[in-house]
Amino acid sequence: MLTAPATDFWRVTHYGFIRDNGHFLPQTVTGDFGAEVEVCGAYREQYDQAGLMLRVSAEVWLKCGVEFVDGRQHLSVVVTHGQSDWSVLPLATVPHSFRLQLARRGNTLDVRTALSDDRQAHGPFQMLRLGWLPLPETVQVGVMCASPDGQGFEVVFRGFRVTAGPPRP
Predict the structure, then answer these.
(1) Which of 9, 23, 133, 134 has the fewest CB atoms within 10 Å of its CB?
(2) Per-residue pLDDT tens for 98-143?
(3) How many other CB atoms are found less than 10 A from the CB of residue 20?
(4) pLDDT tens digit sequence for 84-107
(5) Does residue 3 fall inside a structural domain?
(6) How many domains does the chain have?
(7) Rounded to 5 degrees, what are φ and ψ at 15?
(8) Is residue 105 part of a domain?
C-alpha cells in the first residue's frame, strides 16, 4: 500500500483534534479471536504508521504497530475510548520487518510483537500492551496505515490472518 498524505486515526487527547481518515482494510469478526500480520514499511516522515487495528466505531478502537516519531521507529499502541491514549517504545535498531499479534478475550486486548533481525528472522513474541475496551460481540479487525504529517510511504503487509479464539501467549 501507499499511504495518502494527511491521514490518521486520533481523538482529542493532547492535540485537540479528531482524525478518522487513515487506511483500514477491515474484516468482521465475532467473539474471541487472534489476528496476526507481518509488516515492512519505508517509514520516513513524522508519525508514518502501520500495523493492526480493531474497530467498533470512530470513538472506540485500538491501533498498534510501528510509528516513526522524532526520527526513529517506535512500537506504538493507541487505545481510544472517547479519547485516544498513546504508548510508545523506541526501537534501538531498525528491524527489517515486524510481526504483530492482537488477541481478543472478551473486553481484553493483548498486543504482542516480534521484531526481525538482520537475517530477517523474527524473534519470540513479547507483550507490548494489555488493554481494555467495551466491545460488542462483533467488531472489525484488519491492517491499518496512515501518514498524518508526511507525503505518504510504502508499506507491505504479509500473511494477515484471523483465527477463532485467541492465540496462546
Answers:
(1) 134
(2) 999 999 999 999 999 998 866 566 778 999 999 999 999 999 999 9
(3) 16
(4) 999 999 999 888 899 999 999 999
(5) no
(6) 1
(7) -85, -20
(8) yes
